[in-house]
Amino acid sequence: ISDQKPLGCWSVKHGQILTCPVVCNFETHEYIAVHDDKVLRIWKNEDLNLDKAFKATLSADVYRIHSLPQGGALVLFRGGGVRSLDVLLEAPQQEIENLISAETIRWSGAFMEGQEPVLIFTTQKDKDFFVYVQKPKLNSLHKYKLEQQKLARPLCFTAHITNQTVTLLCLYTNHCVYQVLIPLQQDTEEEEEKEEEILSKSLLLKLSVSGAALKGTSLVVLDKDHIAVLGNVPDPGRKPKEFLTIWNTKFQTLQTCKDLPQGTSGQLWCYEEKFFLIHGKVLTVIMYKCETSSLAAAVGKLKDSQSLDVSSFVNWNTLEEEELVASLESQESVALKAESRMNLRSNRSTGRSGSLSVEQLLIRLKDTSNYVVEIELKKLIARAPTLDLQAAIGCVVTALTDRCKKNPKFYPQSLLQEIVETRDLSYSLCPDLMAVALEQKDLQLLQICLERFPDIPEEITYACLKAFLSTSEDHLKSVDVNLDSAICYVDVECNDMEVKTEILENGFSEEMDQDMCDTKIPKERQSDGESCPVGLQKAALLNAVLHSPYTETFLLPHLKNLPAQQAILFLRYLYYLYVKCSEKVNTTLPGIRSPTINQIMDWMCLLLDAQFTVMVMLPEAKDLLSNLHKFVRAQVRFYSELNKIEGSLRELQRLNHLRESQTYSIEVLEIV
């Protein structure tokens, strides 16, 4: 998100419309979508074409799909029927019951109560609102009517389940949040015969910011004591001011709020202690952490409700490392005093008094010696991996890179490599790391980052490519890089690994190429196809670039700036890989993390698009382009010949199925 980098994108055909939010199935790691109300699509991250994904046409319109971490996927239909995805896929055209023919669904949510999924949805019929609680596994359904509120109606809903009780929160048009408690009932004959029960509600909050009523548009539950509400406050003569607010429901107080001057879409999402909302034209992600609710904290916030710029509840902004250290230094004396009082207890209870907190470590990183830095960071790395620890390590790496920029002599190379290799970091967690590695010409660290980071900006990918191509082969021989991706197919100087074959594979041979092109292949052609134009170390580094994800639109402008000689060298290497792949029947190179045929061809096309004019003008590129053209032309013709006999091959396959397995016969088939 920080680099605005798309990692996956799929689209439906023109005229088709996605009619409910796409979800991810936690159990199968598949995406589930519905377009045109009834057409179900299921695909995985590696699938490129949505039109070729699994398709099932259902018998009724779908309202929402809900995915639960341990409960699979549940499909809610517009008529109120619910099916698990597995049951639905067994018979997509099965009849779906219509439970709410005269009602319209307004909201739905899925939850886990123990090992049992529970689906809750609300409906509206004229001025009446109803609540349905359904347990799909038990085929249990309970319907309730919501108590009416004079001069007000519900705008949105959210819910959570605690101790066999559903807590339904309703945001009304009168700027109030009401709470409805619904016990999860056990099905009995008496319950089935019982008339529709009316649910009473209780006032939970009156929404007000700085004395003005907050017109809420969306709310989410954070924990049992806190909710977040997105809304706006009227501003006479101007546009209403929009706020994201967090409330303590236990003490009915405003915990903190944030002004959103660029406006929002009115929608708020919450997932894994992060808020997601559209602010202006961008998606904004805000981290938060719910502390244990206390009266002192709630009253303190209430008294200071006029000035809510500083909050320990939400990290509204991603602070720069300098700001973070500055704020920590102002609290250092207090922290150290508290630590001295607690050391005795911690020594007795945990025996870990020797390890520093992340805050203390960030302060020490400013000027402590390399030895101390290495010891403390190894203690931090040794901790059990958690989401908080990943973020903390990202902050530590950022602090280290900031110190490297201020003091070029300070560069803990082995420590940085160990952190990247042992932790699932990303570029966005430590955005300056690769820039510092480029300045230090740390090719080994750059290779590791290219192989492990999924969100590297195209500008950095290009900078790495340029650095690898410009480094001399003699210098690379002294660099310790991972050779696993290249050592199995790159021809070394002794040519021990090179194997000659006279078998025609994938339609390529010297004779065929000469015959089809009506020209003699120059000797350079033979050498290009037989020996790698770069050394083993450089090949391994270039392979890391080929594996790095990219978006063509963002990478193409940078490739146009690649020096001509480097572009030719890179194209020669890509051509070498292309020939090597074509020598194999399965078009797969041996080795670990070797480039795929698709990666090679994509990069070759991208490089030619960016540098074609330069290539055509340079005499030294003429033979390379000519050879590449001949090779591709030969393969196209070969596959065209295969297409001609495709029908005959299918007929052979059909005859093979029709033939009796126990009958012996000799058949002569003529392919015309």
Write the layout of secondary structure elements.
Layout lengths: L17 E8 L4 E6 L3 E5 L10 E4 L4 E7 L3 E6 L4 E3 H6 L13 E10 L2 E10 L2 E8 L4 E7 L7 E9 L2 E8 L3 E8 L5 H5 L3 E3 L2 E5 L1 E2 L2 E2 L1 E9 L2 E8 L7 E8 L4 E7 L4 E7 L3 E6 L2 E7 L6 H9 L10 E2 L5 H10 L1 H18 L8 H7 L5 H12 L5 H20 L6 H10 L10 H8 L2 H10 L5 H13 L2 H4 L33 H8 L5 H8 L5 H12 L4 H8 L4 H19 L14 H21 L4 H23 L1 H13 L14
Parallel strand pairs: 11-15
Antiparallel strand pairs: 1-2, 2-3, 3-4, 5-6, 6-7, 8-9, 9-10, 10-11, 12-13, 13-14, 14-16, 17-18, 19-20, 20-21, 21-22, 23-24, 24-25, 25-26
Helix pairs in contact: 9-11, 11-16, 12-16, 12-17, 14-20, 17-19, 18-19
Protein name: NOL11 protein
GO cellular component, one term: nucleolus
InterPro entries: NOL11 (IPR042859), Nol11_C (IPR048897), NOL11_N (IPR012584)
Summarize the structure.
By secondary structure, this protein is of the alpha+beta class. It is built from 21 helices and 26 strands.
How would you describe this structure to a colleague?
With 672 residues, the protein is an alpha+beta fold. Among the domains are: 356-440; 453-492 and 531-617, no CATH class. It is 36% helix and 25% strand. The protein is built from 21 helices and 26 strands. Strand 5 and strand 6 (72-77) form a beta hairpin. Helix 12 packs parallel to helix 17. The longest helix is centred in the last third of the chain and has 23 residues, at 622-644. The chain is globular. It starts with 17 loop residues before the first strand and ends in a 14-residue tail after the last helix. Mean pLDDT is 77; it is low at 301-313, 315-354 and 493-529.
